[in-house]
Write a structure and sequence with these properties.
Elements: H1 2-18, H2 29-48, H3 51-55, H4 57-71, H5 81-85, H6 107-132, H7 141-160
Helix pairs in contact: 2-4, 6-7
Length: 166
């Protein structure tokens, strides 16, 4: 399941890496070089960097990518207009909150994501039991079930309120 989630992300990652949005669009060589250099910096820091540098390899690589993008003209100040104009604090807009729709073609994806989340939560709950009970032999399924129910309710509430899952 985790492998399939990764495979599902490949088209998005490749299209962003090559800076293309649709089939047949030519690859922008400058964008490709910036993306490749950014990826190389992250890999190099992870392979040859010290312990502290490895912790920040992703952040350093992202910063380098932004600098390279700005230096090559791929990133302009106009792209930040919405960021500069946005208010520091805001309240969610609730006018279209109850305009719901359902598309059956998305159901398999939601099922896979839900199974992944439930398996992760199950593993976390079993690990918590092991850590808190030195005589642990097997999972306490009623307690695990209550934990999964609580996790499901939290994720559902987060989704209804427009937030990220817990």
């Amino acid at each position: 399941v985790v492998f399939m989630v990764g495979v599902g992300l490949i088209p998005v990652g490749v299209s962003r890496f090559l800076h293309i949005d649709f089939s047949g669009e030519p690859i922008d060589n400058i964008s490709l070089m910036v993306a490749a250099a950014t990826l190389f910096i992250m890999i190099a820091l992870n392979v040859w960097g010290g312990k502290q540098i490895k912790l920040y390899a992703l952040l350093i690589g992202m910063a380098a990518g932004y600098v390279l993008s700005a230096a090559t003209g791929q990133l302009t100040m106009e792209m930040f207009d919405k960021v500069w104009d946005a208010p520091w604090f805001g309240v969610p807009q609730l006018d279209s909150m109850f305009e719901l729709s359902f598309d059956w073609s998305l159901a398999p994806l939601f099922i896979i994501v839900s199974i992944c989340g439930a398996l992760k939560s199950y593993g976390n709950l079993v690990l918590c039991e092991k850590v808190n009970d030195e005589d642990w032999k097997e999972p306490d399924m009623p307690r695990i079930g209550r934990g999964l129910t609580a996790d499901g309710l939290c994720v559902t509430l987060s989704g209804v309120l427009g937030g990220l899952p817990s």
